[in-house]
Design goal:
- This is EBNA-1 nuclear protein.
- It comes from Skermanella aerolata.
- InterPro entries: DgcN-like, DgcN-like_C, DgcN-like_N, P-loop_NTPase.
- The chain is of the alpha/beta class.
- The protein folds into 2 domains: 115 residues, NAD(P)-binding Rossmann-like Domain (Rossmann fold, 3-Layer(aba) Sandwich), CATH 3.40.50; 192 residues, Rossmann fold.
- It contains 11 helices and 11 strands.
- The strands form 2 sheets. It has a 6-stranded parallel beta sheet with strand order 7-8-6-9-10-11, sandwiched between helices. A 5-stranded parallel beta sheet has the order 2-1-3-4-5, sandwiched between helices.
- Helix 1 packs parallel to helix 6 and helix 7 crosses helix 8.
- The longest helix has 15 residues.
Length: 332
């Protein structure tokens, strides 16, 4: 899929900022693609963008209405339908990362078809993929991996791409989740691909390229998470990474969704991910850490990063607090 921008970010009647996290990710990383935000009465989220009506956004060239709400159950509220229909009338496509499909809303689908507009359900791939082969292909690839889910793999990959491009690298962020797809404008939601084809989908997403080109691949889950390791393994094999960056949240008491399972030791997590990656790239290795220190004060965060770097002999950074330059320094 290729989603046209500029975007108008629709926050609906989000009850709190977290409920608009999809739109927040787009606004944070692709603010120049956004003409503004559209909020309904009662919305408690604010991205700091200008509030725009549909007509105002259309007049400024908005091409896609992004459903930026991540509500419980991933469902469309009936109150949103009028907005979507008007957006189509004004020449916009619609893109959504919700579990439910915008293309299953009959009046919206019928109007989109009649007007020749596109509906993007980015959580649901619309093409078939070949089975992965594991054959070596030119180009370089960096994969963000982690000790658990929801610890900053997407943020890390985007921060690395930004720093690499600022230095003149040929680098592209490759999105593997719904928010990443909206940020990149295309990609594959890997957790919605049938398991046999995950590695092939990633080979498609990060194909052969120039020898000096880097694909910076968004990671998903963790090989040591019992619930989601399957999608991670296919992603590791398909991306065929030259290098990996290990993401971690040091204050987390247990793995996400598993209160009786501790977050694994970093040494074990590195060993498992390197072993899996070397199935398709014998030289794959972890070169640094991206640490989410949001729950720590400045002094504790600095102390932890220094101790971690000394323990493993590789850079340990928080991309929010200090950026990712020490990791990019290793990429040549």
């Amino acid at each position: 899929m290729a989603i046209a921008h500029p975007y108008l970010l629709f926050l609906g009647d989000a009850p709190d900022p977290l409920s608009a996290k999809t739109a927040d990710g787009v606004a944070r990383w692709r603010r120049d693609w956004c003409v503004g935000q559209l909020r309904l009465d009662g919305c408690k989220a604010d991205l700091g963008l200008a509030d725009k009506s549909l007509k105002e956004a259309a007049a400024e060239g908005a091409k896609t209405l992004i459903i930026g709400v991540a509500n419980r159950g991933g469902r469309f509220a009936p109150s949103w339908q009028e907005t979507m229909l008007k957006a189509l009338d004004l020449g916009m496509d619609i893109a959504s990362g919700l579990h439910n499909k915008v293309s299953d809303i009959k009046p919206v689908a019928e109007k989109a078809s009649a007007l020749g507009r596109s509906l993007f359900d980015v959580r649901h791939p619309t093409r078939e993929f070949d089975i992965g082969t594991g054959e070596r292909r030119p180009g370089k690839r960096l994969l963000a991996v982690g000790t658990d889910c929801s610890i900053g793999k997407m943020f890390t990959a985007l921060a690395l791409e930004k720093e690499m491009r600022a230095r003149g690298f040929k680098a592209d962020f490759r999105a593997t989740g719904q928010t990443g797809i909206l940020i990149a404008g295309d990609g594959v939601s890997i957790d919605a691909v049938v398991s046999d084809f995950v590695s092939g989908a990633v080979e498609f997403l990060a194909p052969a390229n120039d020898e000096d080109h880097w694909d910076v691949v968004e990671g998903q889950a963790s090989l040591l998470h019992p619930s989601y390791a399957g999608v991670t393994l296919g992603l590791v094999h398909g991306s065929q990474p030259d290098v990996m960056v290990m993401c971690h949240e040091p204050t987390r008491p247990h793995m996400r969704g598993l209160p009786n399972r501790k977050v694994p030791d970093l040494k074990d997590c590195i060993a498992v991910h390197e072993a899996a990656a070397r199935v398709t790239n014998p030289n794959a290795k972890v070169i640094g850490f991206s640490i989410n220190t949001a729950a720590m004060d400045d002094a504790a965060a600095a102390k932890y990063l220094k101790e971690l770097a000394n323990r493993f002999g590789m850079p340990a950074v928080d991309p929010v607090r200090g950026g990712v330059a020490p990791i990019v320094d290793l990429l040549g």
